[in-house]
Design goal:
With about 270 residues, the protein is mostly beta strands. The protein has two domains: about 90 residues, SARS coronavirus X4 (Immunoglobulin-like, Sandwich), CATH 2.60.40; about 170 residues, Glucose Permease (Domain IIA) (Distorted Sandwich). It is built from two helices and 23 strands. The strands form five sheets. Strands 11, 14, 16, 17, 18, 20, 22 and 23 form an eight-stranded antiparallel beta sheet that branches. A hairpin with a 2-residue loop joins strand 17 and strand 18. The longest helix is centred in the middle third of the chain and has 17 residues. The radius of gyration is 19 Å and the shape is globular.
Length: about 270
């Protein structure tokens, strides 16, 4: 298996808290450049106000915060940190663009590619439930764990690839597909709280979502079995369900997606190198 890229970890440790600093990402240990699709964890003085793209981030008691960089982000991304009683310090992070190959998938049921109106309404309702779950902004700190693979297998679909189903262009792939046999146990890649558990969504089939805290969440699609319910607190490694081929799928696999609120991030980038 190819080497995996590590979690991008930044430490924002400011010494001169009362001095305004406008600079590049050389401020503190924040990386000067990150990849599209990255999750970035930083640390500021406790009780700081941290903002990215106008959004105020949750900061834990140790000063840690996290944000995601979207697939199409061009950058630079400005990170503003204002310690209590001090002036804001700003770092600018450049974004490394990635190549996004085209992935053609044939043999998908036509009604899942171009659904009739009544099915389209159902899909919209289900997508609204998913969008609501992605709004979770809990104080969970599980996002700071070293993530692990939910299942072992070949990567059959990569984050960000442009998908063409039965010749019809669709949205870019929002996660990572891992090929595995039906019934293979799926384990939580990090701890968190289950925010959605649905057995039969039209496109995604058996669907589970876990809130890892501070807006970071995972979603697991096409499950043949669900072993958790909304509100369950899971630890890293707990079995949450089983691999299947439900919804819009041409064979058994696990779709593992991650997001920072409504921004999709690449699960491959949160896994450690081997």
């Amino acid at each position: 298996m190819m080497p995996l890229r590590p979690v991008l970890l930044a430490s924002l440790l400011f010494v001169s808290l009362g001095i305004f600093a406008q600079s590049s990402a050389s401020v503190g240990n924040l990386p000067a450049r990150v990849s599209q699709g990255a999750m970035v964890i930083g640390q500021a003085p406790p009780d700081s106000e941290v903002r990215v793209a106008g959004r105020r981030l949750r900061v834990d008691a140790d000063g840690r915060f996290v944000f995601g960089v979207g697939r199409d982000e061009q950058g630079p991304v400005a990170v503003s940190i204002q310690p209590t009683g001090g002036k804001a310090q700003i770092a600018s992070i450049a974004i490394t663009p990635r190549d996004w190959p085209i992935q053609r998938i044939n043999g998908v049921p036509p009604a899942t590619v171009n659904p009739p109106p009544q099915i389209a309404e159902r899909i919209a309702r289900e997508n609204a439930q998913i969008a609501t779950a992605r709004k979770a902004d809990s104080a969970n700190e599980d996002f700071a764990q070293t993530f692990v693979w939910p299942v072992q297998g070949r990567i059959s679909g990569r984050f960000g690839n442009q998908r063409i189903y039965n010749g019809t262009p669709k949205s870019p792939h929002s996660g990572m597909d891992i090929a595995a046999g039906t019934g293979t146990p799926i384990r939580a890649p990090a701890g968190g709280t289950v925010t959605l558990a649905q057995q039969d969504f039209y496109l995604t089939g058996g669907t589970v979502m876990i809130d890892h805290g501070h807006g970071i969440g995972s979603n697991f699609l096409h499950l043949s079995r669900l072993d958790v319910k909304v509100g369950d607190v899971v630890k890293q490694g707990d079995v949450i369900g089983a691999v299947g081929s439900t919804g819009r799928s041409t064979g058994p696999h696990l779709h593992w997606g991650m997001s920072w609120f409504d921004i999709r991030i690449d699960p491959l980038l949160v896994l450690p190198t081997k």
